[in-house]
Please model this.
Amino acid sequence: MGCCESVEVDGGGRGSVNGSIMMSAKAKLNLRSVDAIKETKELICGGLKIRYAYVSQKGYYPDQLEKANQDAYSVIERFGPSDSNDALFAVYDGHGEIGDKCAQFARDKLPEYLKRHINRAKAKEAKNSAGADDIAKIDLSKDQMQKSCARAHVECNNAMHQAIDDRLSGTTAISAYVHGRRNRMTICNVGDSRAVLGKTADSSSFIQGRTPLKAFPLSRDQTPYRKDERTRIRKTGARILSLDQLEGLEPVDNRDDDPNNDIDIELGEELDEGGDPPRVWSPNGDYPGTAFTRSLGDSMAEALGVFAEPEMLTREFKPNDRMIIIASDGIFEFLTNQSVVDICAKFADPLEACKAVVSESYNLWVQYELRTDDITIICMFVEPNTETAAMEKEYVTSSIKAPVGQITSSEFLFKKNTDGVRPVRTQISKEKAKEIENMKQKAVLSEEDIAELKREVDLNALYTEKTASEKARIADATKTSVMFSNITDEQRELIYGVMEPIAVKKGDWIIKQGAVGDRFYIIDEGTFEVRILKEGEKDDGTGGSIVHHYEGSLSKHLHPIFGELALMYSAPRSASVIARTDGVLFGLHRSAFRQVLTKGQGTRNELMKTIAKIPLFQDLNDAEVTKLAVAFDEIAFGRGEHIVKQNNFGDSMFVITSGTCERVKVVKGSPESSTLKAGDNFGDEVILDRQKYSNTVVSLETVTGWKINRDVLTKTVPVEKLRKSD
Model:
């Protein structure tokens, strides 16, 4: 059983590749589907040499195993006349019931409209230029190019309305048009897919013999996270609410009413902890619910301001430009622009870079969600350009809604450090959290299991010296993990030492779905498959359907990770991982990780001492305290996470064992803050009463601790012996 691959070649011009995922009729529909270029291709665009590759992977939807990949892509060399030096690279991310059809329509038609409007503009320019009869040699100005692109998107959108029932379906579109003769590119963005540039930073900085690349956004996500887009949308009368806000489970934020508030990303950080982003809703009903503010299609949302006019950037290639990445939003749900560039920069081959990014993205989806998104990426490696003339200007244009045929524009600048203006998620979704809680409730813990949960590993017994190369591989593998983002150098060195080298044989089960997890893994070498059993499905011995493959390789610099949630808390594994080949892993036991961070304060024995001092539990006897300590779950948070929020309903209390948090309480509009440290607790106000949290608590660094929810606590100790706080 393997991956289904398909590459479609159409008549769109020499070197044209248009892709969408279509699974073979003979293939089992519960397997992942990957569409990838067979090998990296090389393209000469004027004075530029571009090596490119693409990978598109179908998402895993447990309740819709036959769901098509709704992503599509276009790579068209010699775009325009046969002797053209131009090229077009584009990614389309469909959504809604027929999102795949919308993405494919845009893939097939948008390049046609773009070519038509560019040729018209060139023909018009030729008439005004004596002797300029070869339109392929005519260079359009920035304004001419952007007007052609804007009209092409609007025309494609109108055609989609006529050809497809796109009332509640549509697609995003991100494209890079390379003007070969001018060594220039124009980026067009509609929606929340993304374009990113990787360029060399300070040439004096080297990492393992390589000059590091710095990521720069070439597009901004058009979502309700952006205040300018929220303001524009709300002028139509639309509502902007998360699903929980729509259902009355979360308070509605009114800070946009403050004319002095020009915040983009803060709103997103607070709304999207568990995968519940702000969405666009009609004032008259619970539709359409789009998490973006521009798209092709979505005719019902168009009346609410969700239109198809692109934001555009025209930019000359510069000598230190090395990489261009365009990708669907599935890549950026859990990875920053810089993380994606860092992964790609490890490879000399853009195809291997694409595969590594897709693998890392997919892995994070599996860990933090019940499903995965469709994922598509095009990676272009650009050779240094020695032509420095006219390479200093960048033009960024945002189109403003105007009558069709009267497209206007205004200049705006990218805001610094917004990284695309959408928060990168660092927490599991609410659905995933519920599944974990359900699995925990169903799990029957034996005395051995309880003993294992209470066991503290011996760090000295685990410790092994690592080579510089091994340390570098471990550091590289954990670079994108929030759990390792804020630890000290001393802690990092100790973690390297307690990582266990584990040799595995083909067919070994590394983790089993439903078993309580206690280790995090890095694949040093070997191939592994991820299998999932749906709820109620009986295991025939295989572990269920294959949803993903991990490949670790020293030669390819591939070292994926899995099982990261085991560092956060003890919970049943949500998938099985089985070795397909012999291999080598590095394993990190949760207890070892916590001991390194807490220096002994994270043990259950220490928790018992802390519990005895908490007013809520002061009437419990020693046996009840011990029983309660076993019922607590280990948790960990990365820096900057909102653990609880004031005025939100909750059911869990927390005890901190390492790290610090800021506790903020807003009283009559004025914030009051304090610092929480090891040994402190919070959230006990929701244990006896089904009420809201009285404070907001945010982690200031990597934090470890314990958590228990109301239902578990009240089943573990007598409710009448719990003392309500004053």
In short: The mean pLDDT is 80.
